[in-house]
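The data are quoted verbatim here:
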Amino acid sequence: MNDSVTTAGTLPSSGRVGGVEFVVLGCGEPVTVLAHGLGGSTAETRPLAAGLSGTRVLLHFRGHGDSDPLDDGWDYDVLADDLRRVADAVGATRALGLSLGAGALLRLLIATPARFGRVAFVLPAALDRARADGATARLDRLATAMRIGDLSRLQELLLLEVPPSLRATRAAQVLTARRARQLAFTEPPSPRGAVRPIESLAALRTIEVPSLVLAQEEDDLHTVATARTLAEALPQASLHVLQAGGVFWTDRHRARQLLAAHLTA
């Protein structure tokens, strides 16, 4: 597919720029770009976009979806470049990063602190240190199941992200089964060595844009401690901690309200 995009206000339903594909929801101002997590897709960010007004632009980082492959792996500079390309192409004035996407957004803002008028970091996974804990091992297990297309194993691992009380529900079973089919027989993008989104917390002091940091209890991949550290390091940030599984499951309506109030203020 050839790279194609138009100016904000006349955006098509989808587009591609710099090898990065994206889909567009809604119309008008503000224009918000949303970035997913590692091994994720626009299906991850679509629920977060549901409560936002204006135009919502959901990208696939290279190495994900139908965006260009990353033969040499990823690092946060690569991800930040992808995010910037799409944001500039569509005229985005707001940005939301989920997990790995939150790290990409931080990397972009370190270089250009005033690029967006408002930003949101949902379930940030890492800051100034590369992850070297059980979270990394869990991602490795997921990658192995993706390569061989083990649907049952993929669903089992995906269900670990669902609160225990909800894992047997039809909604959880259907959604994780669908996600497992999307991930099966795909090559997960690998990092270029040890990676971290920022070099030091002190660098965040230059990012004076109003920021929302959204976390949830009992999440080993995206700890409340990481979210709190980020919120404390940013000059204009507010932190909201939801109950376990709150962002997508147990308190998703509250999550959408918080994001809408902040990003479309």
Q: What stands out?
A: The radius of gyration is 17 Å. The longest strand covers residues 20-26. Residues 14-130+196-263 form a domain with the Rossmann fold fold (CATH 3.40.50.1820).
